[in-house]
Design a protein that fits this description.
binds zinc ion, Four Helix Bundle (Hemerythrin (Met), subunit A), 3 domains, alpha/beta, 467 residues, 17 helices
């Protein structure tokens, strides 16, 4: 099956032909760890998680690298504001980022390099760029000399005036050209800094991805991904740093996810629509957030809303219910991902179409209840297997249905019955039933129902779900 992807560089859908089929290599720009990840930060993580799952299905080996930016002026500003050390902020934020993304079902990348661990490589790249005449030193800074690279701007396709305007340069007398960008800048004693041939300082942001992608994927790899907002200047500058000397091809394909709005507007703290993943996870299961992100094609702008999240949860309820009911009749067969799901995802990650197919399978499954022949049972077993396998390629339906229906928002968990208390009451009810004390058994059922817990007595005992 041929994977087609939309390549930002060529501005069209192209057949994906890896440089080396034995090791497909993917690099995605990761978070700057100074604050909790918002839902816009989560979009590329989830999108490229689906891509990496698909690539792993199509090729024997995939190497996926996503970096962590742990040196940045935003981090310095956060430290100044809170009085904490930079390390405390970056460690804590990285840890919460990992927890949040795991809750969204994103698998860990194969490598997750941190910028501060690769300063030496960054200094070496700057020295190389100075030697090739593509960079220059000025007042303790080292800058990339944009006019030295005739095809600078080929990814963003901006003209010279747009490049200069978009660079949003501060007044910087040391720049030879307004489009030049910083590779290295001096640090005062209160800021993080490393010794370099140009004095104590720190790298410009763009540098780290050129260095870390080469370190883990080599000078030429397959796909570079990220949010659309990174095309310029970040990715343009990565290309400049990595290819201006003409000895490396860097990324063969560029993939970018579209913008995200919330409740119809640009997210902002003042509008009250600034959703962090951490807060959303108090209100919705991680899988529902993941599904809400995948219901829109990754290149389209996405309007993320609470009502959209509620309907994503309802869709997952539908999938899980179908699996749960099927298991009252038969076990779920372990099957390969249905071809129709792979076909949709191979069409530039068409997740909305793949989801439509999964709903079709669910409808078939729901129409197959009350089986009375061996053949019916076989069909249910197969359809449930198709649904599970198809969802797994999207990173959905990753829990046992029993656990899915136990989920509750954080606000309800306070003061409500916890899972252990519910299990204890069910045990007590089983004993009452065995003793034919139906008054007590009904009382327990009613008590649980009043707490929103519904019991279902089946052949394998009693299961429960939160209503
Ligand atoms: Zn990057």
């Amino acid at each position: 099956m041929t994977l087609k992807i939309h390549d930002t560089l060529r501005r069209k859908k192209v057949d994906f032909e890896p440089r080396d089929e034995a090791n497909v290599r993917l690099y995605v720009c990761g978070p700057t760890v100074y604050d909790l990840a918002h839902i816009g930060n989560a979009r590329p993580v989830v999108v490229f998680d689906v891509l990496s799952r698909l690539l792993r299905r199509l090729y024997p080996k995939v190497t996926y690298v996503r970096n962590i930016t742990d040196v940045d002026d935003k981090i310095n500003a956060a430290a100044k504001e809170s009085g904490e050390t930079i390390q405390v902020i970056t460690e804590r934020t990285t840890k919460i980022f990992h927890q949040d993304m795991a809750a969204l079902g994103a698998l860990d990348p194969d490598h997750e390099p941190r910028a501060t661990e690769h300063i030496e490589g960054m200094i070496a790249l700057i020295e190389k760029l100075l030697k090739s005449g593509n960079a220059y030193e000025a007042e303790g800074h080292v800058l990339f000399d944009v006019p030295s690279m005739p095809d600078y701007g080929r990814l963003s396709k901006l003209n010279r005036d747009e490049l200069v305007a978009g660079a949003r340069v501060e007044v910087a007398p040391y720049k030879r050209d307004p489009a030049d960008f910083i590779l290295w800048k001096p640090s005062t004693d209160d800021l993080p800094g490393w010794d370099s041939p140009w004095g104590r300082g720190r790298p410009g942001w763009h540098l780290e991805c050129s260095v870390m992608s080469e370190k883990f994927l080599g000078p030429e790899f397959d796909i570079h991904g990220g949010g659309q907002d990174l095309i310029f200047p970040h990715h343009e500058n990565e290309i400049a740093q990595s290819t201006c000397t003409g000895d490396a091809g860097f990324a063969k394909y560029w993939m970018h996810n579209g913008y995200l709005m919330a409740e119809g507007e640009k997210m902002s703290k003042s509008l009250g629509n600034f959703y962090t993943v951490h807060d959303l996870l108090d209100e919705f299961p991680g899988e529902a957030i993941r599904l809400a992100l995948l219901k829109t094609h990754y290149r389209q702008p996405l309007d993320f809303t609470k009502s959209g999240l509620a309907s994503a949860k309802a869709e997952l309820d539908r999938f899980y219910t179908a699996i749960r009911i099927s298991r009252q009749f038969t076990t779920t067969r372990v099957v390969d991902v249905p071809e129709e799901i792979v076909i949709e995802l191979c069409d530039d990650l068409d997740t909305p179409m793949a989801l439509r197919r999964l709903h079709d399978i669910t409808s078939d499954l729901n129409n197959s209840t009350a089986p009375d022949t061996e053949k019916d049972l076989d069909r249910i077993s197969m359809l449930a297997g198709n649904l599970l396998a198809g969802c797994s390629l999207l990173g959905l339906l990753q829990q046992d249905p029993k656990d899915w229906f136990k989920w509750q928002p954080a606000s309800a968990a306070e003061g409500g019955l916890d899972d252990d208390a519910i299990d204890a009451l069910i045990t007590e009810r089983n004993t009452a039933r065995a003793d034919k004390d139906f008054a007590r058994s009904d009382e327990i059922r009613d008590q649980l129902a009043a707490d929103g817990v519904l019991l279902e007595d089946g052949p394998d005992g009693t299961t429960w779900k939160r209503g």
